[in-house]
Amino acid sequence: MRSVETFRDLQSDATAWRRYLHQNPELDYRVHNTASFVTEKLASFGINHIEAGIAETGIVALIQGGGGDGPTIGLRADMDALPILETSNKPWSSKTPGMMHACGHDGHTAMLLGAAKYLAETRNFKGSVALIFQPAEEDGRGAQRMVQEGIMDRFGISRVFGMHNTPGMEVGKFGICHGPVLAALDEFDLVVKGRGGHAARPHETVDPFVIAAQIILGLQTLVSRNTDPLDSLVISVTKLNAGMAYNIIPGQAEISGTVRSLLPRLRDFAERQIAALAQGIAHGFGGDIEFKYRRLEPVTFNHAEETNLAINAARNLVGPASVNDKMRPRISSEDFAYMLEAKPGAIIYFGNGPTAALHNPAYDFNDEALPYGIGYWVSLVETVLAP
Ligand SMILES: [Zn+2]
Ligand SMILES: [Zn+2]
Predict the structure, then answer these.
(1) For position 225, which CATH number holds?
(2) Residues 6+ positions from 44 with CB-CB distance below 8 Å
(3) Is the pTM of this model over 0.70?
(4) Ligand that lies nearest to the alpha carbon of residue 164, given by its number in the listed order
(5) Is the pLDDT of residue 2 over 80?
């Protein structure tokens, strides 16, 4: 058992870093200033193996333990902000109107820096730690690109771990579960092809509005009538575009939406059945469809052994009563999923206290959570890589 008090010393440094990052948010791959800040700090901790410019602005830095040979584990933080106008009114509010850290990635970056400082000083572990700072999490592609650019093999990373804050969860608490923890995210576009004509002579047209309306209602039944009530699947229509005038029935209508699922078979089912149902309805009315389905992010899947390691690391820090190891999976998504597809690992959630929700303009990362995040990383390294 180690106490979070060990990491209180780092809290004032980490708070200053976090607030600096909060004031200077950057989007997607364009996190140049953030990446320079991270690189400078890592170098100042005496870490000399730092590789920048991976996936444009991503960074991987290696800290070698003092306990001899062993495997390398990856710890990942995300660095990007969101295109939101901040309303938190904090003294450290964003200096760039229309851009803010509304997902706490400023806090995640500061926590991994805090852990880096501690681990570089103490090196009380065997093997090595690879610190992964990624761009473009919100864009959903940064983690995938870092994997595609070969970080797992290049740095010999055998296991990878992630962490995200949770508004509404008490500071000092952790939550995690085995298996699927976040949903897969997909998008679809449906073009309903009818035949346009005069609104006064509908019998000479194939009205795409009528077909689109039937399709939208039909899609509601895929979850309610065709999937197991105990499984999780969400199909939402989020865009509908058609028509230009009062007296014209247009030739086509466009429907778009998203699908979120926790199991691969439900994802396959949604892709197959949205197309089949829409086509069946359109044909029944004398029309047709064009269908495009894009798989954006996979299910975030926590591997069994690494989830147990993460649970133990959190318990060692805050005690068993503060770690919920049966957290309910969430239907949002996270690009860390790509790292978990590449290597076994686990993502854990920690409390951000009673703050505004993620992606809300009033959100702010809670600096009281910093020592817990830093402590978790250190505890994890010293658990997994015990000399
Ligand atoms: Zn986010
Ligand atoms: Zn986030």
Answers:
(1) 3.30.70.360
(2) none
(3) yes
(4) 2
(5) no
